[in-house]
Amino acid sequence: MRDPDFWEDPLEFKPERFLTSSRSGQEEERNEQAMKYLPFGGGRRGCPASKLSYMALGTTIGMMVQCFEWRIIGEKVNMDDRYKCFSKTMAHPLTLTPVTRLSNLELKTLVNLQT
């Protein structure tokens, strides 16, 4: 981050160096500039919480699937797709509405009231 070969005034706080290109908006310069700033590298010096975030993400998605019913907004889902960079994405995003499910305690109470 403080390498004078890469940065002009490396010890000064200049957030604009990450926002704009120094050569009036040339695409190559912006791409090159973006690769200079990597807050966490790869390998041994990678992000210390990356494994924790993957576990938390899996738990969160599992709980959302378990605790909500997901309803589609509209009548029909548009399944058109497009390529973006190296991955395939939906051309029209899928919009869902979460509806809470009854908890086990509420469900048992409801069943007991009906019998």
From TrEMBL:
Membrane topology designation: Single-pass membrane protein
Annotated positions binding heme: C47
Cofactors demanded by this protein: heme
GO cellular component terms, semicolon-separated: membrane
UniProt-listed PROSITE patterns: CYTOCHROME_P450
GO molecular function, one term: oxidoreductase activity, acting on paired donors, with incorporation or reduction of molecular oxygen, NAD(P)H as one donor, and incorporation of one atom of oxygen
This protein's UniProt keywords: Heme, Iron, Membrane, Metal-binding, Monooxygenase, Oxidoreductase, Transmembrane, Transmembrane helix
Transport listed as a keyword: no
UniProt-annotated location(s): Membrane
Principal localisation: membrane
Family note: Belongs to the cytochrome P450 family.
Protein name in UniProt: Cytochrome P450
Organism: Microthlaspi erraticum
